[in-house]
Design goal:
By secondary structure, this protein is of the alpha+beta class. The protein is built from eleven helices and ten strands. The protein is 41% helix and 21% strand. The protein is globular.
Length: 273
Amino acid sequence: MEYRAKYITDDIKLSCYEDKFFKSDIMFEHHMLIWFISGETKIVQADATYVFKGGDIFLIPRNQLATIINYPMDGQPHKTVVMHLSTAKLRDFYANLDVKPKALESQKIYHFSNHPLLASCLSSLIPYFEMKELPEDIASLKITEAISILRAMDKNIDNILANFEEPGKIDLAGYMEKNFMFNLPLEKFGYLTGRSLTTFKRDFGKAFNTTPQRWLTQKRLELAHYQFTEKQKRPIDVCYETGFENLSHFSYAFKKHFGYTPTKLLGQLKTNQ
């Protein structure tokens, strides 16, 4: 896979994937504002799946679990402008504003389509990626502009951008039942449930009477079996949407658990139709 990235600063980059696809399970530390130039991205969350293409603009709130799959399309690479809206930058922005954000039960991905103001703000960054010397403070000004546009577009966006709380201790069992398909380090699951790694493992054992890795593998394989039998999805899609890193390992684990391969199961399902 050939990946290229050009940075204006650590918080603004031009990202380009030119190979078949790129997949990652991610928890973003910062809010991510993304403008699509070309290609396609599928974002799979616990309760929703999104597909974005050229011209789309979307905001992914921080601390959200997601499987992200990037594809080239129509002979064009997967190319995006990515802007991090960091907690530090947002604290500076809101420091002199009287904003009291409301707590949200869930933080969805915000889709702004090809909004002219945001598109103008983000597309104006393109020339700066070719410059050897960047005008002082231009990146900070562009981030401030983007935040201001978001606030003008959506009166509720302050509930996301001005909320600086870290995850508190929550119901571990309920959270894991909803988010087991994301292949993240246990430390990340601990952080998102408000626990240290040691406390996470201890509480997990009490809740499920097994180790996290054994439980996660079984849950992912059961979800994969459901995706085959009920939706007859392709093995490659099921593999990446249920927390496995490659098709060969997925097929091996699936056969070991169920006694037959995904291909054989799909063949039987087609025969019985």
